[in-house]
Design brief:
This protein is an all-alpha fold and about 140 residues long. The chain folds into 2 domains: about 1-55; about 60-140. It is about 80% helix and about 0% strand. The model has no long low-confidence stretch (mean pLDDT about 80).
């Protein structure tokens, strides 16, 4: 009888250890699956956020200011940019061709040339105005540019 109780006790303890091992394994598997699902969810959120960031164009404050200035009619940015590249050459050409000393014998053309020359000096860096003065000089002073 003592032997039977030891055998029974051994069977019960083996069964309990098997059950506890299975329970432990299933708990560890559950935690692994929870961690895997959490990592996948975090990666999906990061991918969505990065995709949205790349998809939207960042707002450029300079572009906004340019659009507002164009809408208000205060600044002609095309003229400003063109003036930076083209004004010097046009100014030098007009300065030479429209100088009053080129018309010493004709008092009328000399007066017109003096007026145009003064306005050329005032608009040295404004290519839009220099082009208008160029057309005026061509028509009034009969010069070829």
């Amino acid at each position: 009888m003592a032997m039977e109780s030891l055998d029974t006790l051994k069977i019960v303890s083996d069964s309990l250890s098997n059950v506890s091992q299975q329970a432990g394994n299933s708990d560890s598997h559950t935690w692994i699956w929870i961690i895997v699902v959490s990592v996948i969810a975090i990666l999906l959120i990061v991918i969505i956020l990065v995709h949205r960031r790349w998809k939207t164009k960042p707002v450029d404050k300079l572009d906004i200011l340019k659009q507002q200035a164009k809408a208000d009619g205060k600044v002609d940015f095309d003229n400003v940019i063109a003036s930076g590249f083209l004004a010097k050459k046009l100014y030098d050409t007009l300065k030479v061709e429209c100088h009053p000393d080129k018309f010493p014998l004709d008092d009328e053309k000399n007066a017109i040339a003096t007026d145009i020359f003064q306005r050329i000096k005032q608009n040295e860096h404004n290519v839009g105005e220099l082009n208008k003065l160029k057309e005026e000089a061509i028509s009034k002073l009969n010069i070829n540019l």
